[in-house]
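Section 5.1 Outputs to date
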Amino acid sequence: PGHGGHDTGTIGPSGLMEKDLVLDIAQRLGALIEEQLGAEVIYTRTGDTSVSLQDRTALANEKKADLFLSIHANSGIKSAAGSETYYLNFTTSKSAMDVAARENASSQQTIHELQNLLEKIALKDKVEESREFAAKVQTALSKELARVNPAARDRGVRKAPFLVLVGAAMPSILAEVDFLSNAREERLLQRADYRQKIAEALYKGVSNYASTLSRFQLAEQKKP
C-alpha cells in the first residue's frame, strides 16, 4: 500500500484518504493471494505508518520477493476517471510525469537530483518483465471494474520514473486503481464491496502473470 503516516496521499472531495483506502485494498488482495495462490505476502506496511520509498524496494529485495506491486489511487481534474498501471522507465508524457511527481513527493530527493537513476533504469533487466506484469494487471483491472463502474476508462499501461520502483530486483509495477479526486469514483471507493472488487481484479492480474513464472507453477503443484 502506498503512502501512510504523515503522508496521506490524495484526499477525496468528501475526505477519503488514499493511505487508508490502499491499505484496505492491499490487505484484501494479500488475503486472496495467500488463500488462492498459496504464496507468502510481504506488506510494506500493515498499519498507518510512514515507510520511505527507498525502504519499500529494499524490503522486497531483502525478502527476495518474486513480484512487487505498489497500490495507489489517482488524482487529476474532476472528470478524470479509470485505472492505469505503470512500470519504471523514463517518459515524455506530461500526465505520466505529473503522476510520478506526486507519488515521489514524499522523498527527499527529486528525479533530477538522482544522478544514478538513468543508469539504474538502463541496467535494469526487469523492464520487459515489469511491462508484461503491468499489462496483465491493467487488463484485469479495466475488465473487472467496467462491470461495476461502466463510466471507468481503461487508461492503459504507462511508464514513468517512480522512485518506489527504482532498484527493485524483481518485476515491479505501480497500479493507480481509480481517481480519488473524482467524486463519483470516491463514492464507489468508500464501499467495501467495490474495494473487494478492486482486490479481486488485482489478484487476477497477479495470478495471470504468476502463472507464466515457473517457480509459481512448481509451488502450485506442491499444494495438496
